[in-house]
Amino acid sequence: MQANLTNKAFLGSGVQCKVSRQQAPARRPMQIRAQEAAVILKTGEKNKVPVELEKGDLPLNTFNNKKPFKGKIVSVDRIVGPKATGETCHIVIETRGEIPYWEGQSYGVIPPGTKINSRGKEMPHGVRLYSIAASRYGDTFDGKTTSLCVRRAEYWDPEMNANDPAKKGICSNFLCDSKVGDEITMTGPTGKVLLLPEDPNAVIIMVATGTGIAPYRAFWRRFFLEDVPNYKFGGLAWLFMGVANSDAKLYDDELQMLVKEYPKQFRLDYALSREQKNKSGGKMYIQDKVEEYADEVFDLLDKGAVIYFCGLKGMMPGIQDMLQRVAGEKGMVWEEFLERMKKGGQWRVEVY
């Protein structure tokens, strides 16, 4: 599917996804990374990282479609279970440290091949944007790799009773099918909306659906797994994560370790729409889970907490309606409270 520079290509919006019948790739590499994280958390000895990546200005658009960057695939791992409502992969890319970024930014990916535009002219595929799923130091903590979290976009044709290859997501399938050593054409980095606040003691509330979790993985690795010079996270990181079922959870091994080792600084709440019920007996969506903690969330926001939203744009109307209703019940004027948060940099939204 074609996406322009203003659209994220995480999930192939507008297509119905169905789990692939193919055998799932081995998950050993991701398990190894989770085991490494476990050692860090248990010993309290965080990974030392290169101090030079803390220096300089925010990198923006270092590479573009006219002057792209060429990286190489290091690994591609399926990170969901067999009953997930689609296939999601964690993809590690070798960058040699030549396309630096900050947590919360995105990379563009240009899939190989060409397309025919509306005028009948053959031209290269456009750029698809993906939030970066690693801190600036990458999964190897040396600044030489980066990571993407990609859901394969497929269209299930009920008449064919099969996936229609003509309607599959071009870039997501290219990435999920990549092999070690394959070349990947990239642009960026881009984005300022999801950057971390300057205050290392801030309260961070993260709301995600699906692969919208990607930038938050960058956050929690910086907070808890890395020995970053002149940076020590002293605040609270609270993640609300919405997926269909338990098999669709992403990076749950890392998350459970953080819950265990940092109970006062990291909180995790899942909204599993096909397994849990909300207070009215309906499916548990992300806004329902946030509402369960509405008093605490509003109190934190009133005290300056920063709230982030990343994922499918369809989640925002339900969330905003819920927040407006709860604000009214508290005797607050939601529009005024929202405007105050926006002016103070507390309201960060990047949806697709």
From TrEMBL:
Which reactions is this enzyme annotated as catalysing? 2 reduced [2Fe-2S]-[ferredoxin] + NADP(+) + H(+) = 2 oxidized [2Fe-2S]-[ferredoxin] + NADPH
Where is it located? Plastid, Chloroplast
Which coarse location class applies to the principal site listed for this UniProt protein?
A: plastid
The record's annotation in InterPro entries points to: FAD-bd_FR_type, Flavoprot_Pyr_Nucl_cyt_Rdtase, FNR, FNR_nucleotide-bd, FNR_plant_Cyanobacteria, OxRdtase_FAD/NAD-bd, Riboflavin_synthase-like_b-brl
Write down the Gene3D superfamilies for this protein, in alphabetical order: Nucleotide-binding domain of ferredoxin-NADP reductase (FNR) module, Translation factors
Enzyme class comes to oxidoreductase
Kindly name one Pfam family recorded for this protein. NAD_binding_1
Per UniProt, the keywords (alphabetical) are: FAD, Flavoprotein, NADP, Oxidoreductase
Q: Which cofactor does it need?
A: FAD
In terms of CDD domains, this protein maps to:
CYPOR_like_FNR (cd06208)
Q: Which residues form the FAD-binding FR-type domain?
A: 66-196
Q: Does the keyword NADP apply?
A: yes
Q: What is its EC number?
A: 1.18.1.2
User: What family is this?
Assistant: Belongs to the ferredoxin--NADP reductase type 1 family.
Q: What is this protein called?
A: Ferredoxin--NADP reductase, chloroplastic
Q: Which organism encodes this protein?
A: Coccomyxa viridis
